[in-house]
Every structure is written in structure tokens, then in C-alpha cells.
Amino acid sequence: MNNPLQSINAECYQTRLRHRHPHHSLTNKNTQRITSPHNPHHQPPHSSTPPQEMPQSQNSIDLELNRLNSPFSDSSSSDPDLPLTMDPPPAPKPRWLDPRPSSIFTRITTSLQPFTQYLKHILRPRLTLRYVVCSVIGVYVLYCFVTWQPFFSSRLPAYSGPHDVGAVDLEIPLEKPKRLSETLLKSTKKPAFEVESVLFTVYYPAVKGARSKGALHPWVPKPLSLTAEGYARAAGVNNFIIRPIFTFALWVLVGSIKIPAKVDVPLLGSDGEKFPVMVFSHGSVSSRTDYTHYLGELASRGHVIAALEHRDGSCPGSMVQIKNKKDRPVFLLKESDLISEPPMNDTLLKKEQLAFRTEEIMQAIRVLKDVNDGKGKDIFASSSRGEGSTLDGWKDRLDFKHLTINGHSYGATGALQALKTANTTAANPAIGGIALDPGKSSGQLNTNIPVPLLVVHSNSWSKTHSIFFGRPHFDTVLNLVRGVRDKVGSAWFLTSIGTAHPSVTDAPLLQPLLLNFATGATADVKKALGEYVKVTMDFLEFTKTSKENGVLDEAVTHEKYGEWVSKEREKSFPKEYAKYWEVHVCPLDQDK
């Protein structure tokens, strides 16, 4: 069917051609071409008359008509004088045909479409390595968020003993600061070794089911930046760029770790029940919170533990807080940070630090004795840490007849130093001592110890050959323990198989794979720490009953690390102990 508009256009064009060529007429054949410009299959009727040659003017008309009939011709642009070929102006649209305004929900949904499309794109299952890794990380972060787990560390486990465990932070000022040396801090020109207060956390057996009066203690005391700066100092990179990085790393790794002991809850038991007391000294670049599980396990078995935080310049960072005084930070110290006469060196620094530690141990014993004497309210009032509201009920609840002093690494060296006056003065009624990995670079080891002693080496501490003041460290410790045994009759030196220097700390519990990889420890983390707890309890029981239990009831198995004394002893040593222990020194009756 012909388009009427096209037919009208063709007629108009013919009229114009007539005006241009008045002496020529159009044949029917040409008219048929014009009336059917858009039908490629239309053929003119056949004629028996042979075609005649047209004049030149007629040929030009045909050429123009052919251009009009061409499917590639553009009628809208071939001649500007053809108004009928132009699109008509758009008619006004009725207002009722306009779409209704979209709702807020629709607009929000529309705006989120790019995000949802992107989300669909990244969530569609494509088993590429990047997709799998990102999915695992996402699921892990979600799991940590839902279960309140730290992102990159394990939570500290609950204590396994029969009792709940309470915790109280105490910082008690001395009546008068006690200056132990003339050494000054280079930065402030103030005394470097002057004891103003003593800070420690008390772990103790608590009433079953008691509710914590405050938030659980953080594993890294706040502010995190204080400890982070101490670590930066220890690494020798203390500057304004590295400190925030260390602080952020601490926050990510352990910022959410909480110590599971309940804060400021009542002491367990009736008025007549007493609990043995232990004072614990931490190692270098450590603090009072680095051994919480080991000490909490002892508390859950019926002991009161005072975990000291030393201000001798061996703790990464500690804040001295005394009521009505400005807080004062104490950081890790090096010889170059001090002014002394003669000039400070490593030997002199260790000597002054050990004297400072010994004084803090004595001050902690003094505070606990005041609590036991019924001065709990006064201690609570004088403490700057705001805890200890239940100490008033601790009168006559602490058993100072069975006080022991314990320490790890530098703290073990400090414990040995403090044991020099053990059970010889009213200020130091200790009846036994425990030294875990006594230091290899923390000064001379005190050999004058008048009470029973337990020394435990980690496997790495015994295995690694170290020269200590001109002789192997292992031989030095061996002779020290033998000397105590010969003097008082009871002393032990053991090696814990498969463990490393940090095995008694909380660190392997928080990062078991990392610590085992870094230290070479092979023992199961929890089992190894459990063995430390067990042998400590056996020693504490010995101080009360004089009865040897467990591995403490065994004769010597190895006089040298890794070498059995005989094939017969190897066969007779119980397998339950052989898996975890080597016995180097024991009491004389067992040795025979």
C-alpha cells in the first residue's frame, strides 16, 4: 500500500518539474515510478513497443526521480522546501499522563541499585584464590564480632581450679619515698631509682558465683600508648611515626583481651580459713599482666598471689598514680638514659634495678600484712586504683607462715635476690622460693638462699648454650641449686621438655601458632602451662607438709641436659613424667 504522504510529495515534485521544464511531459511510466518509490518489487508494465531513446532533458528528470526513489535518499534533507517531510512538533502531553512522584522507599531503592549490583557481582561464587581468601577473612571477622573474640588472638581460657578467681589492683604510696641510689634520669634530672609507691594485682580464690563489681581488667593496661612506647623503646625505633603504629598494632592484636578474673569480689570461705601467699616478680619488658593465667590457676587452687609491676625501668611502660599528685610515666631504661657517678654501665644498672625490685617485693609484703592485720579499709582508701572495697573482710585470712617468692626471667633473678633475707627477718617471712628461667643477662645470681628452692628451666633455656660470667649458664644454675640443697636439704632443678622461654606467660595462649613458630616450642601450649602449674603446686604443698609429690618425688634423671644418667634410670622413670621433665637436682634422700 502506498504511503499517502509520499504520493503527495511526489505530486508536488512533478509540479515543480513542470515549472522548470514546461516543454516536456511526464509519461505514465515515470508517474508509476513516482507513485511507488518505496516498493522495490514493483515493476512497470511490460510493453511490446521497444523503448525509445529519450531526450537529454528527460534523462535528467529521470535521474532526479531516481534519486527520490532511492532507499538511501533522505527526503528530509534533500530539499529544504519540502515542509511535509519534517517531523510534526510534539503535541503537549496531558498532565494526567505524567508518572506519579516516586516514594522515599522507591528513591532509596533506586539509589542503592549500583551498590546492590556491585554486591551481587562480588558475592557470586567464583572459586578464585582472592575470592576464597576474602570470604574466609569476612567469615572470621563476623565470627569474632558475634562471639566477642579478639580478631587476631585467642581469648584467655577460664581457670581450671575448684574456686572462682578474684582480682584487685592496688597502688599504695609509701609513707615517705625511698631513694635507693644517686642515679638521675637524664631527661628530668630527677631520681631514677626512688620508690614512691608499689603497684600489684592480687589474684585470690573468690566466692563462687560472685558478680564482678567492675569491668574485667584489660590484658594490656590502658593507655595502650604507654606500653606501645615502651616496646618502641625496646626496639630502638621510638619516634612520633612508629609510636602510633605500635599503638594501633597493640589495639588490633590484643586490645580487646580481658583477664577472666572477677574484679573486687569477696574472698572465699569463712573467717577461720587462711590462704598461703605468694609474691610474683615479672621478667624484663613485661608487666604484672603477662602471667595472669599461670597465677590465676594458682589462685583457683587456694593461693593468694601478688603480681608486681616493677618501676625499675624493666617494664615497657607503667604509670605511677598517687592521690593528689600528677601521674608520672615510667618507661624502659637504658644506660644512656641515666646520669651517675661512675658512669652507668650494664652491671651497675642491673645491680640498682635488682635493689629496686627487692624493695618493691618487701613493700608488697608489707601492704598484704597490713590487710591481714585488719587495715583493709585504710589500704582501700589510700590506693589510687579505686579497687579493694572487700579488703576489710580479709583480716586474719592470709597465711604468712607459708609465704613464697616467685619470679620469671629477670623476675627469677629478683626473686633469688629477695630470698637472701628469707625467713630471717619480720619483713621477709618467706619459707620458699621458685625461679623460672633465672636470667642470663640480668646480673649475678644470689646463691645465699636459706629456704627450699625450686628452679625450672624451659627447654630452650637449658638447651641454648650461654656463657654467664665466664661459665655456662646451665652449670651456674646447677651448682646454685646443689648449694641450696646441701645447705637446707631440699632443692630441685628441672627442665620442662618442649617448652620455650615465654611458655609460662600468657603469650602462647593468645598466639599459640605464632609463638611456637618463633620460639621452636613443641609442647602443647595448655598442657605445658598446666605442667608448670602442677609442679608449682607440688612445691607449695611441700612447703606446707614437707611431702614430695609428683615429679618432685623423683630422683635425678639428667645431670646434663639431654643426657640420661643411665639406661636403668631411663627405664625406671615413669613415662607420665618422662614426656615433660628432666630432673637435674633433687633432695639428697631421693638422689641416693
Automatic annotation (TrEMBL):
<dbReference type="GO" id="GO:0016042">
    <property type="term" value="P:lipid catabolic process"/>
</dbReference>
<keyword id="KW-0443">Lipid metabolism</keyword>
<protein>
    <recommendedName>
        <fullName>Putative phospholipase</fullName>
        <ecNumber>3.1.1.47</ecNumber>
    </recommendedName>
</protein>
<keyword id="KW-1133">Transmembrane helix</keyword>
<comment type="similarity">
    <text>Belongs to the serine esterase family.</text>
</comment>
<dbReference type="GO" id="GO:0003847">
    <property type="term" value="F:1-alkyl-2-acetylglycerophosphocholine esterase activity"/>
</dbReference>
<keyword id="KW-0378">Hydrolase</keyword>
<feature type="transmembrane region" description="Helical">
    <location>
        <begin position="129"/>
        <end position="148"/>
    </location>
</feature>
<keyword id="KW-0812">Transmembrane</keyword>
<dbReference type="InterPro" id="IPR016715">
    <property type="entry name" value="PAF_acetylhydro_eukaryote"/>
</dbReference>
<keyword id="KW-0442">Lipid degradation</keyword>
<feature type="active site" description="Nucleophile">
    <location>
        <position position="409"/>
    </location>
</feature>
<feature type="active site" description="Charge relay system">
    <location>
        <position position="437"/>
    </location>
</feature>
<feature type="region of interest" description="Disordered">
    <location>
        <begin position="18"/>
        <end position="99"/>
    </location>
</feature>
<feature type="active site" description="Charge relay system">
    <location>
        <position position="501"/>
    </location>
</feature>
<dbReference type="Pfam" id="PF03403">
    <property type="entry name" value="PAF-AH_p_II"/>
</dbReference>
<dbReference type="InterPro" id="IPR029058">
    <property type="entry name" value="AB_hydrolase_fold"/>
</dbReference>
<keyword id="KW-0472">Membrane</keyword>
<feature type="compositionally biased region" description="Low complexity">
    <location>
        <begin position="70"/>
        <end position="85"/>
    </location>
</feature>
